[in-house]
Amino acid sequence: MTFTRHGPDRVSADHTGAPEALRGTGAAAALVDAMVADARKSGFRIVPRCSYVAARFARHPEWADAFA
Asked: What is the mean pLDDT of the chain?
């Protein structure tokens, strides 16, 4: 996952991917899950520039507190 910090309270999720060997294993989903947990713990919000992150967010409305 690549991301950009936009100040102390905003981080954009720019790209999420997994090597071919890990595709379909849930590795990319685990990265997004970890970013959401980190956002909640550290007090920043996620700007979902990555289409994968945006799609995961759409499936998890309970994450609304972690997204900008």
From this structure: 95
